[in-house]
């Protein structure tokens, strides 16, 4: 460390250099390339033509008719809407199921908590594709859920409940996949929570519900917000679940991007969708940062 | 005075008992790991009383407070609040509030919001809440801090807010669990006075928990001394200091000398007894039981007077001198099993005249020598 400059600010910058370099190479450059591609023209069979164009963004909202006039086309808007809707539903389902789970774990004796956390995270170690396929066996035609209906005779041999290849199946798949990302941050904030505060609330005439809504929820808010973001963001761009469980018709942004780069070979359009996804993510992260600042003030000493 | 006598309030006061505890028992856990934290606790606390639970750490003080607040259910016994049995009444329906040991202020609420919290749950009107919060903040001198978050306050200030928050709903009984133990000495002493004044001003019954005998003696109307889950004695500070019910109370409430002796004379107001070391002493006979011959005599160090050799009850040799600022504490060997601990206020005698090894006369007056009920 002898040759480091003595100016502390400069030294700090220099010592951050490797980290900054890695972020630059692995994040900024790819994002930059995508951003640039989204403003170029598409080559017919993949790749880009190097001339500026906003076509990719226009294409999201309009269809170009044969006479070159633009016709409003809701097709992609519906996909964007479906993505937000399903990501939102998955987030809410994860919250409703994940909060009680996190609460339960945080109330266990200290020596048991790590085991519960381990159980929650075990599915994460298995291949996501395989786990998603498992849902086809559960939800699919003659699957675990449908089979009893067939035996009892409520459903004829050719009938189906239609659980698979639907928005419902996608929501189930997203909820299932991302629920650990909801449980872990909520658990982290509940574990820090001083439960004598709950006693204090009861002491001051709070019913169980009031103690929950006025004390436990506000104090676990950072965990709840973090969990919601961690579920919502990857759900929004999810690709495997809509592809496998939604079938071809129920596209989401993730499947749409994948489709543009592979089958449709419209790189600028794929890049434009990716940029929109990125913008959504940045907006949500800013909301989170704002909430986290409020939290810091509370913990200041 | 026996424990049972001390526990019962005079008949006139009984009608106004704020809290009556009857044979309250609490066992944590079951089977081999069971811990009996409260054993047959019975006593009454009068309305508008500053009542203190005093005892060493682990004796069950917090458990008793938590049972009163219903954070912990009792295993047996009854608890009555102004005559009403509250054993099955949940916390949020009890007109009892708590000042928690570590304050437990809501970190996400401002000082004013903390104080208003209980009033809001009781569905008081907005104007009443505002007025009460302002009153309470003034009472604890925290008006200027109404908008701050708890994390922006010092320990002493948080303490005041916790007090205001618990007082705001005007409970019938206020529980305080070692509220001063986290404060530094100077602050602790000024808070003692202030708490006492606030209790008198509000007229709320205070149940105060401490392990510090100075705190208990200086603030309380009455004190219950606890040890190992039992209540050892209930009485005024003067009663428990001057007439401790047993050796534990005598030793816990202040410094004490114990001398084993045998009764040698018939019983009058005073009795004559002979110590193991052979000294013949006159002692106060009020605690002597019928037919009792072996007794333990008890004597506070400051009740001993020193005189010239031969001119006192017994003679002894100074074996240790400690300078305490406003007094000196000496150990004097008078030929008993333990040396006698004696404190002598400075100013009365020129302390420089006393030296380790000096022989002195020790005056043990019959009124200062008491027989202990074991
Ligand atoms: N939740 C609990 N579980 C088991 N034992 C406990 C629990 N709380 C307290 N105890 C035990 O009960 C006894 C009394 O404790 P406590 O009331 O906290 O004493 P104090 O407040 O006088 O220090 C102690 O022996 C303590 O170890
Ligand atoms: Mg305690």
Summarize it.
The complex is a heterodimer of chains A (301) and B (374). By secondary structure, chain A is mainly α.
List the helices and strands and how they pair.
The complex is a heterodimer of chains A (301) and B (374).
Chain A: H1 8-38, E1 40-42, E2 48-52, H2 55-61, E3 62-64, E4 70-72, H3 75-106, H4 110-121, H5 128-139, H6 147-152, H7 167-192, H8 196-203, H9 208-219, H10 221-236, H11 240-245, H12 253-261, H13 267-299
Antiparallel strand pairs in A: 1-2, 3-4
Helix pairs in contact in A: 1-13, 2-13, 3-7, 3-10, 7-10, 8-9, 10-13, 12-13
Chain B: H1 3-7, H2 11-14, E1 17-28, E2 35-46, E3 50-54, H3 61-69, E4 76-81, E5 84-85, E6 96-99, H4 111-121, H5 126-139, H6 155-167, E7 173-177, H7 185-202, E8 205-210, H8 213-219, E9 222-227, E10 230-235, H9 237-242, H10 247-253, E11 257-263, E12 270-275, E13 280-284, E14 294-299, E15 305-307, E16 314-323, E17 327-333, E18 340-345, E19 359-363, E20 370-371
Helix pairs in contact in B: 4-5, 4-6, 5-6
Task: Provide an overview of this structure.
The complex is a heterodimer of chains A (301) and B (374). Chain A is built from 13 helices and four strands. Helices cover 70% and strands 5% of the residues of chain A. In chain A, the strands form two sheets. Chain A has a two-stranded antiparallel ribbon with strand order 1-2. With 301 residues, chain A is mainly alpha-helical. Chain B is an alpha+beta fold. In chain B, strands 6-7-8-3-9-10 form a six-stranded mixed sheet, sandwiched between helices. A five-stranded antiparallel sheet of chain B has the order 13-12-11-14-20, with helices on one face. In chain B, strands 15-19-16-17-18 form a five-stranded antiparallel sheet, with no helix packed on it. In chain B, helix 4 (111-121) runs parallel beside helix 6. The longest helix of chain B has 18 residues, at 185-202. Classes of the chains: A mainly alpha (301), B alpha+beta (374). The interface between A and B is medium-sized, with 22 and 26 residues. Residues 61-62 of chain B line the site of magnesium ion.
